[in-house]
Amino acid sequence: MSTHSRIQAAELQAKKAPRQVRAKATFDAIIEAGAQVLAAEGYAAVTTNRVAEVAGVSIGSLYEYFPNKQSIIASGLARVMREVTAEVSASLREAVALEGQPRAGIDYWMRAMAAALERRGDLLRVALREVPFLWDIPEMRDLSDTLQHIAQEGRRKSQRVVHFDDPEASTYLLMTMVWSAILQTVLYRPAHLSRERLTQTLVEMLLKLL
Amino acid sequence: MSTHSRIQAAELQAKKAPRQVRAKATFDAIIEAGAQVLAAEGYAAVTTNRVAEVAGVSIGSLYEYFPNKQSIIASGLARVMREVTAEVSASLREAVALEGQPRAGIDYWMRAMAAALERRGDLLRVALREVPFLWDIPEMRDLSDTLQHIAQEGRRKSQRVVHFDDPEASTYLLMTMVWSAILQTVLYRPAHLSRERLTQTLVEMLLKLL
DNA sequence: CATTAACCTGAACAAAAGCTCGGAAACACT
DNA sequence: AGTGTTTCCGAGCTTTTGTTCAGGTTAATG
User: Fold this and answer.
1) Quick one: which of A151, A174, B41, B76 could link to A4 by a disulfide (CB 3.0–4.6 Å)?
2) Residue B2 pLDDT > 90, yes or no?
3) What is the enclosing helix (H) or strand (E) of B197?
4) How far is CA B165 from CA A176, A202, B91, in A?
5) Chain B residues closer than 8 Å to A128 by CB
């Protein structure tokens, strides 16, 4: 078993909230700078002094609000993931609501996912591959939980959606697989598979299965 | 676009091969120690001095064979990935050969994949999540290329395997999705999905699609 | 206006980590 | 045994980086 110590939740959060508007601006600038350096230059390039410099703030101010380096990155990723979760789950709900036209629903959902991921592509690429404490950020886990929840709910409402021996497991799996495929394709752009071919084929497959 | 510099191939390789048997032992001990520390304590814990210590070798010896820290990790991962690729692609070939019994073939292949991954679970988990230059290691890319190659070849030989509008893309996708699902399940053990349920459901899905 | 609280600054400290290098020991070969 | 080559050693140099702190500035408060 891997034993390297999990990071405590407190160490991944800001240590105090800004009270004045000026302070709110520096706070945001720090988070923004952290995300930007991470996305553009990778995890190793994210040093506290560099983040402060990019944010246009002194190193002291940085430690006024964040207890350590990790909390800056974690705050930025948490913020982004809240946005992604909101966008993706909203589109999944809409897709589920389009019961009558499964093709349109699936298509719509996949485009929404791809768009949400692509907009944060540089950041998510680095985050998924390099940030050691990524999965200690609660918002990171929330996305898949939320999607699962919506999917299972949708399955229960309209019985005819999945007929497998194990409906729960197969819904879970379908969800996971489609998500993985989109993630892979959008973030890592395999040579032989354009976005168009991906979505077309995925839709076809899902229609055969549902 | 993310601009952080790609690592040169030379920086990820051993700088000279051991000539004597004694030297071969230290060389291997270093690689082994690197992999062990990485698997057990994470990327941040892999320091050159620590690797030397765990290997029971002096720091000087380490730099006799490896130009830098990354090359130690890269060598270890390359070695492991050669093994995994060999095991997984052998089992895929056998599965493809079982044309007559698709259920047995799929089942066999998935068990082989799961076993190959699980045996290196601790190492691969950390590698996939934390090693920044992971995909600059050629052996890392070889696996999916090899699997794709075998799968596409299998499809061409027995025409009746996949009937989709875009056979190549759908084979690619199926491959990717099954691989992702197994990887996820074996390495990150989702709470609600046991290995048994996964394989059962996956087999069922594949049979419906092929 | 006076006082307190919030905010900001940046030089400097301490720890850590990658890597070098001069020299000794083990080995191969004649 | 003698000679050159390979291997090994580890103290220490250099650089980097996370973080602190004492003091100054700005904003709120009464």
Assistant:
1) B41
2) no
3) helix B195-209
4) 23, 11, 28
5) 129
